[in-house]
Known about the structure:
By secondary structure, the protein is an alpha+beta fold. The protein contains 12 helices and 40 strands. The radius of gyration is 32 Å and the shape is globular.
Amino acid sequence: MKRNAAKTFVLVVLCALFSTVTGQSASGTLDLTLVIKDARGRGLANTEVEFIETRTRQRILAQTDGYGVVKQQFTSGRYWQFNVKDVRDYFFWQFEVPPGRKYTLSKSVTYNYERYERETRPTVDRTRLRLEEVPLKTRLNDPPSQTEGIIRLEIQRADKRPLGRFPVALTCYKLGKTFTAKTNPGGIAVFKVPLGQEYEVDLDGINSFTYCDLIDKPYYVARKRFTYEPTEIVEKEVNDTIVQKLKPGQKGTSGRVITTITMVGNGKDVWREEPVFIEVIGQHKWYKGVTNQRGQVSFLLPKSDRYMIHGRYEPDLDVLDYRRRRGIGYGNKRILYRPMAKYQFPAEYIPTPEDLILEAFQEFMDQKYPAPEDGAPVRTHAEFTGPVNANSREAVLRLAFAPPSEVSNEFSPPLNLCFVIDKSGSMAGDDRIEQLKLSMEAFLNRLRPGDIASLVIFEDFETVVIPARTLGDRKRFKEAIVRLDAGGGTNIFKGMMAGYQEVMKNFQRGRTNRLILLSDGYGVTPVDEILAGQKTFTDQGVECSTVGVGENYNFALLKQLASNGGGHISHVGEAKEMRSAFMNELASVLFPVATDVTVEITYNRHLKYKQLYGYPLKERKGRKLVMKLRNLYAGLDQLAFVRFSLPQPVPEIEAEPVEVRLRCKDLRTGQMIDQVTEVSLEWSESGEDLALVLDQQEKKLYTIAVLNQSLKLMSDRFHGGDPAGARQAIDEGLASLQKAYPGPMDRDLAELHRKLLDYLDVLEKQQGR
Length: 769
């Protein structure tokens, strides 16, 4: 017996050693019996259940029987999440398959969407609220009334002792009040507060640690028991930055999560003695630490908040979300730290011509031009910006192309859309995720109830938040959007593939079948693999539009994805631009007017072409210019400027008009449109130097166009080996701006001015100035 036991022990040890050496562990087996009930305790019959392994994203679909029971065996994976109907990624609905053993698990859950919504709703940024603080001294035996109920909180420490004499509060957003009290020696705090309200429980500086609501029932009493272990820590706060002094072996507490961040490079090395900054999102508060020789730094961070991790040379690395943490908190985060050349090596800040992103001055338009009156898809407005005389040296032709302000949805084909949203850590910066929520809600409000939409989010893995469905009243879709939070890495490939699969569920010829991707365009999958994956679906007729996020987004990839998919690319540098990007995409799918839009400009012998602003010059032959416009959408005017020099202006210039010919296909009728407009320069006998006549809006747009040209010349010359010429281009742009706006500038122009000065500083350092 002993010898056999010894042999068995040796065999087990050898198996364990082999498992360790090969990096594998034996998979367990779990036989799960899951009972799903509705809020009344009845079995939720014939309902689909989705099981997702949280690390590998393996997906298993099952269905309950007539009694709400589903039986499923799991022989792979470790941690599984299950989703039912509209309850998705619920942190309580998880189970584990322990490795190396066989288990049986019976689990009963209640499908209660209202409770799920209450427990998973996003926390509120209280910095934007003006909450009134109301101290209470409710006694233990105080009775409830017809209008006020009693909330009794019983709090104990981790060792089961009462948490006595400890501050605790209830916050009601609807009332705009925070009710404060202290626990008695027995760890009990009693509040007498209005009935029919939702209350967040706050303690130890942590907002919404838990909740306790009062129903609208006279004389109602609610009780809640929970454990809380206070935090003891030494912190030094200077202005808005906090430096912590942690004890050796510091552990997490009920209110704080001990978080260890490891900063690694592209290889196996780590970043030693490197500053790390933790920003409390939405609160203008920072924690600062420095990595040790193992590349690690630890922080003790309060729960109920979200945090953005920043490096010294790379911002927006990742997000820590501790709003739903329960119990004693521990967290580890491994960060791939790739310092940005812009911050680490300022001399490399100058973008290449391919990477340079110019300000599309169409985005700054707020002037509306008269729409066509004859049923045409577009009306061309052509006008020179002022008269000329013998002393004039330049003339500027303004071109505006105005489609109808509104068209009926009857011309828009049925929609089958999938939003694929990057929720990685970079999306939390600059309030982007919050603006995304507002923009998507506005977008949804314009869609029709019969349109089909789906929502896929991705970070390190993809999640189908809303499977493809007709919108109906949009309620569930909007609720899912509200719960979006940023955090994690970026696996753009998995997100796109899941999105295309959702579109294909309802793919039909004649529909607008489109994937709308919002991302910074970076990830772990090779570009060739992403493009090959996309081709599988574009070959079947699925379109793709992209929205690039951030200052340094991967323009090349997102541009190619949009071009391959027959869509267009938008850029969101700041959060405030999110809405504009989504509204442009909305117009492109709902209100198409004309396509294949080409403009030919034939000018006279008195003019010499210098520059086209607003669109790339497609062709130039003799005195004819050809440019290609974007497709025309209802309510979206398009604007361009053509700049001419005047070598020898003479009065005869009035008699030789410039011809503007626009050709396009009217999508409403299918007919080709050929529209000709003539415009002449006005001659003045005045001997004064006539300045270009522009209204304030045109002046701004023209100035932005000139500054864009300066940036383009700067990039071309610098990367062509002419740094002096690059600096000259910036100097000329700054001079033009100073001449046009000698005084204060608005925000858009001030931002461009800052960008020019940044580049000028780099160029001067390049030349040792």
